[in-house]
Amino acid sequence: MSVHRLDRTEARRIAVRAQLLDTPRPADLMTVVRHLTLLQIDPTAAVAPNADLVAWSRLRSSYEPAHLQQALERDRTLFEHQAMVRPMDDLRLYLAVMATLPAGERQREWLRRNDRFRRDVLDLLGAAGPLLSRDIPDTSVVAWPSTGWTNNRNVTQMLEFLVMRGEVAIAGRRGRQRLWDLAERVYPAGTPVVPLDEARRIRDERLLRSLGIVRATALSGGDASGVGEPATVEGLPGTWRVDPAAVGRPFTGRTALLSPFDRLVHDRVRLAELFDFEYVLEMYKPKARRRWGYFALPILHDDRLVGKVDATADRRSGTFLVHAVHRDAPFTGAMTEAVRAEVRDLASWLRLTATMAAGADRTG
User: Fold this and answer.
1) How far is 21 from 5, CA to CA, in rounded Å?
2) Entry pTM
3) Are strands 319-327 and 361-363 parallel, antiparallel or unpaired?
4) I want to staple 258 with a disulfide (CB 3.0 to 4.6 A). Which of 75, 296, 298, 312 is the partner?
5) What per-residue string of b and e applies to 200-232 under the rule 16 or more CB within 10 Å gives b?
6) pLDDT tens by residue, 153-188
7) What is the maximal distance between C-alpha atoms in the chain?
8) Residue 181 near residue 172, CB atoms below 8 Å
9) DSSP state at residue 131
10) How many CA atoms lie within 13 A of 166 on its CB side?
């Protein structure tokens, strides 16, 4: 098999186009999720929850959070599993691995010793589901041991394991709280089970298509055989795997504000290699140690990441307050206006008024 030899510009454009961040924009939410394969769930709402922000960055104001809720709870075209929203069509690719979970012996032993508790939960959901976790009694024999926040949170831990195993599913949400039900009432009846190795290969192929170009270690177990084709990127060591259908295609870029959890920036090593872009999500840092802000939004312009927007959605005052625009590269007048247009559209989508803090425009 021949090796694709790419310069860094082409590699970046493959990555941007694969994430549906070029033009024209995709048509609707299902097109986005089917191509990206997932929307990561994170409740941080300094601007908007990640799943909504990722959808907005592809669809702009044609997307509403109600679309995601409808797809999950009414249409059942999407499902939530292990903090990811995925197309229901892809459930078949996860059923085989669900049957092997949990993988750890400690977790398996806890489930064995609490089998009566497990059956109690399933019986209650069967009779009265969907339910919030607080509506499910704790009948565990052995408490869940942990040095973290899950210690003795036996109902939540049991539900997490049962979802992991495909016995229970998330039927919807009440606010931010999950509603739990029997999987057979949420997942389509008769969904075929794709064998484990074949499912892993298909998931890797779809992952590569959604990212365009990756190191082999980004694929299942780091096994690149049969997935994509090998490539080198000028100026970077080692080989990559590239989606051959993405090589040599025309590219028309645009400007976009990205979630800190966006898959274009999620792999920080790839981000540094292909885009020469430094980024750290600083919400976990003390305020005095932040360079770019609590929830700074990376700025994509064409095939480059050129800065970050530090902003907060202040719903009490009705403002989308831009604390700073950090420029990592010189902005032309057209770039400045394009970024401002994205800020205005994001504020409008949030039903807030965009406001720039004094001295918000910064370099570095």
Assistant:
1) 23
2) 0.93
3) parallel
4) 298
5) bbebbebbbbbbbbbbbebbeeeebeebbbebb
6) 899 999 999 999 999 999 999 988 999 999 999 999
7) 66
8) no
9) B
10) 16
